[in-house]
């Protein structure tokens, strides 16, 4: 959440990070795999346990996988690259 005015030069002349620094700055990223889902204002990482479960299902060549997230059952559709609540059919892209 932004709580102050953003200076114009922040957009026009951004201070960019090097690619390797961006990867290293991901908490918990060990150079292996990492799963993300599209949500409000961008892409979000799955927590470590969900990430491991999703990767194992993906490596097992499953077309889809069910996962409990915050007490709700979600379907991860590997074939179409979507995640959606099993009760509702609102899809979110995964990557």
Automatic annotation (TrEMBL):
Pathway: Protein modification; protein ubiquitination. One of its GO terms (molecular function) is ubiquitin protein ligase activity. Its EC number is 2.3.2.27. The keyword Zinc-finger applies. Coiled coil: none annotated. SUPFAM superfamilies: WWE domain. Pfam families: WWE (PF02825). It comes from the Eukaryota. Keywords: Cytoplasm, Metal-binding, Transferase, Ubl conjugation pathway, Zinc, Zinc-finger. The WWE domain mediates non-covalent poly(ADP-ribose)-binding. This is E3 ubiquitin-protein ligase.
